[in-house]
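An example makes the point: we print one protein in full, the chain in one-letter code, the fold tokenised, without further comment:
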Amino acid sequence: MSSSKASRLGEEIWKTRVDKVNAELVILTYGTVVAQLCKDFDGDYVEVNKQLDKMGYNIGLRLIEDYLARSNTMKRCSNFRETADMISRVGFKIFLNITPKLPTDQRQ
């Protein structure tokens, strides 16, 4: 998929198929979760970090599933660079409405 087509796809999905949530709500919710974990584990911050790591992993899996379902891009990426390009142009646009710039690879 060409980069301009991928960018258009990400923009179209952001505008039409994504429920938006206020960023402040997300920040407050995350802070509440962390505070509750600290209480639940009596200040055992190593265990709190383990739980946050598990939560982050599961959220990442969910984001991947959601990205694949929404973007409907059936073409396989041929290398890591192409994968990163699709994630930056479509995935980040879908979830955060941003398009990060990838660094250029000097080895090419």
The two ends are 20 Å apart (CA to CA).
